[in-house]
Amino acid sequence: MAARRDFGQGNGHGQPAVPVDAAFAVDHLHRLRFTRHAFDPANPVLREVLGEAEASSGRLVAFVDQGVIDAWPDLGTRLENYIESVPGFTVAGGIRCVPGGEAAKNDWSVYEDTLRVIHDEGVCRHSTVLAIGGGAVLDVVGFAAATAHRGVRLVRFPTTTLAQGDAGIGVKNGINGFGTKNFLGSFAVPWAVINDEAFLATLSDRDWRCGLSEAVKVALLKDERYFDAIERAADRLRDRDDAALRPIVRHSAELHLQHIVTSGDPFELRGSRPLDFGHWSAHKLEQLTGFRMPHGEAVAIGVALDVVYSAMSGRLAGSDAARIVALLERLGFTLHDPALHDPALFDGLEEFREHLGGRLTITLLEGIGRPVDVHEMDRQRLADAIGQLASMATGERRP
Ligand SMILES: NC(=O)c1ccc[n+]([C@@H]2O[C@H](COP(=O)([O-])OP(=O)(O)OC[C@H]3O[C@@H](n4cnc5c(N)ncnc54)[C@H](O)[C@@H]3O)[C@@H](O)[C@H]2O)c1
Ligand SMILES: [Zn+2]
């Protein structure tokens, strides 16, 4: 710890303030595990992760996405049996059901109900909150866990492709407020994230596809060879081939985690937020469509728009832009929506700036795997890019 104390100087009226600065660092361990059938009594992963806590009350509350319970009706029993078999652990009050999808983040009563359970079940900072679900449920339960007692240990079980490859991996949580995505939320490192790939089997085709847009996004930012791999697997992914999906989602998770751990800015204090490539418009499209458009589909459009804009502003080769747009379409995404023509779309730029703070910083592309930050977006060129995307998306023309 470096401290600076200058007593007896400048502490009178009109004098400079006395600086007492103290720098300190805290190590975090972010545990990410890939497995199948985590609540099978023979599966050691959760037992091991729970056992790593130095101080533990053994008390655990479990919140499960309604969509997951519908698809896996015996999940509650299996989970309770598993936990009861871990020495010293117990599930307080049975499993709790949380409404699935964006509604869970739009209605603050879901956050409040989650907090109430944590309160009423006597959960303390040495207890564990377990969250099982899609990105939305993980976000709201994570926010409640991060704010109750200033932070209760959280184990996440992401159950969608998007949550296993992106949303469940990071150090953020949040709920929507005043019409703004993730207006309330916090940065909180989870105790562990367990990607149980068996959950993905019961997703709707739409939710199964949604994680692929975040995979393309992170490939464009970080890894050209991964982009090539997604391209090679595109037809099998479109046909919902689980074996083709697994390595794609895993690598997406790894790249997201790597960014958080190695970028030097896990809590986003600096100006740039590259993992939100394409998200200024994506978040606005979700809002403008009354959340009819799910996050993953909005990200596909948002990425395509900023890719076309990158090409139109001379940064990215037209052939690369055409390749990226074609891949997103081959994966089954629709890249045009009437909401793109709503003049309020451009408010998304200012909202994005506010959310990050400081001056506007938008990530564009100079090549596949080569991001670049810019601080201005030309409205006319953006409008042109939207027009271009509309014609490309209907196959009329490529840049
Ligand atoms: N915190 C972050 O860093 C971060 C990052 C990216 C996205 N997000 C957020 O994640 C959310 C999107 O998450 P999502 O794409 O997982 O969608 P989602 O959470 O909205 O879930 C989609 C649907 O799938 C259902 N479902 C979940 N798992 C299922 C399963 N295994 N079988 C059957 N149905 C299942 C849910 O009930 C819901 O109806 C957005 O709110 C987005 O803002 C957060
Ligand atoms: Zn996203």
How would you sum up this structure, described in words?
This protein is an alpha/beta fold and 399 residues long. It is 45% helix and 14% strand. The chain has 15 helices and 13 strands. Strand 9 (175-177) and strand 10 form a beta hairpin. Helix 11 crosses helix 14. The chain is globular, with a radius of gyration of 22 Å. The termini are far apart. The model has no long low-confidence stretch (mean pLDDT 93). Bound molecules: nicotinamide-adenine-dinucleotide and zinc ion.
The distinct ligands, each listed once, are: nicotinamide-adenine-dinucleotide, zinc ion
Instruction: Supply the number of helical segments.
Output: 15
N-end to C-end Cα span: 55 Å
Helix content: 40-55%
Fraction of residues in β-strands: 5-15%
Element-by-element helix/strand order: EEEHEHHEEHHEHEHEEEHHHHHHHEEH
How is the biggest beta sheet arranged? 7 strands, parallel
Shape: globular
Question: What Rg, in angstroms, do the CA atoms define?
Answer: 22 Å
- Give the helix/strand class: alpha/beta
Show unreliable segments: none
How many beta-strand elements?
13
Q: Report the mean per-residue pLDDT as an integer.
A: 93
Show the helix and strand layout:
Layout: E1 2-3, E2 22-23, E3 31-35, H1 45-51, E4 59-65, H2 66-71, H3 75-84, E5 90-91, E6 96-98, H4 103-106, H5 108-120, E7 128-133, H6 135-147, E8 153-158, H7 161-167, E9 175-177, E10 180-184, E11 192-196, H8 205-222, H9 224-238, H10 242-262, H11 279-288, H12 295-312, H13 318-330, H14 347-356, E12 362-367, E13 370-374, H15 379-393
Helix pairs in contact: 5-6, 6-7, 7-8, 7-10, 8-9, 8-10, 8-12, 9-10, 11-12, 11-14, 12-13, 12-15
The structure holds nicotinamide-adenine-dinucleotide and zinc ion.
